[in-house]
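Q: what sequence does this backbone want?
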């Protein structure tokens, strides 16, 4: 077992030449100036070689590629900046620029948000669409977690407590006017970070939004929850923790490898992924470039994974899924007890997806009971109908249903000048604000309805690694299979 990571790297090294050969050969049968392009079997050969290239190549971390955004009808430039650079995470800002002076003044008055991306296998670019939508109405920062295999052992260990400290440092750097948005796994450490700041008497963020996270994993447990609860901590440590090979800067660091995460993603629904790749092959043969480009874009992100520090991974299993330390009131971060009831001045919004098969119904909403110090008039909950785990922060339902709620919630908790600068939707999904009816926050937890298999497969992210359940991976669904023409 101890050599699995080394064997994986050896296999990848052997496949790299094959991937390059396949790519070059595919172009030989598709380039318009090549005589081989005009042979009868050229489309089949080119498509097959292209698919072989995709299956054997190594996938590196994608880029955000957000260079412009439209703000109130004006296209403004966006520059990605590194604000803070820590060993295990960078704080990025997407700074907007324009020479339109009235627009520049309005953008300066818009609210500031910190998006805390999950450290659960994929890179922070998984939230690319989340960031792009937020940039219409906000100044945006995001956490960009570092692949643990790239961090030298000399940098020390990285635990769940360290994660909490990182979030506090980022909040303090941006300032108390920030609005914090946590997506999936970070809902727990973000709540801890703000709780500890409140207990110390520090100023806390204006708002905190928690989306699809395991605040109380005991409620409506999903299949991925159950494995984390039913296996011992020793089982995880003995079966999924390995040392980084010598060809990386983090050589000998103990990690939960990204390739295990990815293997589990695929293994949960191999048939659908196989069909997706077959559809890609047929698209290339038929010359349907739009469909082929969508496949490439999806799997460029889906196949790019990172290693997680072993200490952080095991801490998450123990604290969140086995001891339930947050909801039991027993969690101590570096000797300080986490007390969410001490939060009083930060407004709270929780978001859950109706079809979320990663964080069950009520798991995120449980934050309302824990944050008893926040007045009921400043606590809101939103259920996104028809949305799976991925759909609450990306895709059509994110844009049309969830984002308008989030935008208006943040706007209603800013100063008057900042609130006026935020555009409001013409037909908001639900009103949020002092004059609006309070959303139902009764403690009763509904059991999510089970959609038919075909419907669920189309709406809910399709793959997850069982042993990765402890970090609640934010997952993308594989492209929906299409009937061959």
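A:
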């Amino acid at each position: 077992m101890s050599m699995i990571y080394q064997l994986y790297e050896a296999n990848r090294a052997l496949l790299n030449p094959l991937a390059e050969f396949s790519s070059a050969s595919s172009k030989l049968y598709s380039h318009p100036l090549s005589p081989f392009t005009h042979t009868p079997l050229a489309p089949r050969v080119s498509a097959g070689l292209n698919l072989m290239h995709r299956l054997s190549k190594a996938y590196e971390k994608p880029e955000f590629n957000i260079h412009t955004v439209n703000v109130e009808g004006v296209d403004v430039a966006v520059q990605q900046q590194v604000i803070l650079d820590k060993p295990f995470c960078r704080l990025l800002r997407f700074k907007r620029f324009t020479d339109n002076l009235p627009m520049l003044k309005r953008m300066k008055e818009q609210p500031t948000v910190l998006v805390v991306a999950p450290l659960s296998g994929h890179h922070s670019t998984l939230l690319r669409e989340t960031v792009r939508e937020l940039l219409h109405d906000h100044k945006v920062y995001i956490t960009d977690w570092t692949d643990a295999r790239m961090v030298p052992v000399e940098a020390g260990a990285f635990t769940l407590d360290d994660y909490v400290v990182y979030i506090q440092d980022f909040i303090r750097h941006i300032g108390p006017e920030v609005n914090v948005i946590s997506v999936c796994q970070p809902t727990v450490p973000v709540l801890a970070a703000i709780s500890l700041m409140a207990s110390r008497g520090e100023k806390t963020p204006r708002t905190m939004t928690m989306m699809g996270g395991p605040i109380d994993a005991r409620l409506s447990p999903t299949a991925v929850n159950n494995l984390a609860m039913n296996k011992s901590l020793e089982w995880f440590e003995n079966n999924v923790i390995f040392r980084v090979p010598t060809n990386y800067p983090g050589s000998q660091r103990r990690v939960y490898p990204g390739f295990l995460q990815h293997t589990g993603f695929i293994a949960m629904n191999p048939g659908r992924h196989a069909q997706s790749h077959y559809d890609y092959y047929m698209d290339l043969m038929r010359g349907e470039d739009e469909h082929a480009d969508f496949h490439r874009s999806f799997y460029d992100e889906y196949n790019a994974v990172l290693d997680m520090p072993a200490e952080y991974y095991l801490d998450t299993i123990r604290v969140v899924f086995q001891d339930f330390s947050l909801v039991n009131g027993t969690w101590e971060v570096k000797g300080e007890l986490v007390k969410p009831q001490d939060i009083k001045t930060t407004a709270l919004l929780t978001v859950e997806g109706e079809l979320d098969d990663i964080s069950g119904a009520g798991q995120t909403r449980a934050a309302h009971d824990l944050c008893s110090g926040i007045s009921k008039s400043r606590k809101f909950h939103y259920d996104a109908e028809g949305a799976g785990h991925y759909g609450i922060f990306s895709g059509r339902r994110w844009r049309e249903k969830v984002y308008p709620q989030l935008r208006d919630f943040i706007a209603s908790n800013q100063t008057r000048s900042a609130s006026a600068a935020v555009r409001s939707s013409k037909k908001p999904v639900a009103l949020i604000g002092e004059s609006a009816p309070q959303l139902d926050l009764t403690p009763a937890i509904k059991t999510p309805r089970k959609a038919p298999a075909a419907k669920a497969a189309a709406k809910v992210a399709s793959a997850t690694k069982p042993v990765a359940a402890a970090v609640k991976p934010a997952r993308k669904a594989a492209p929906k299979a299409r009937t061959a023409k």
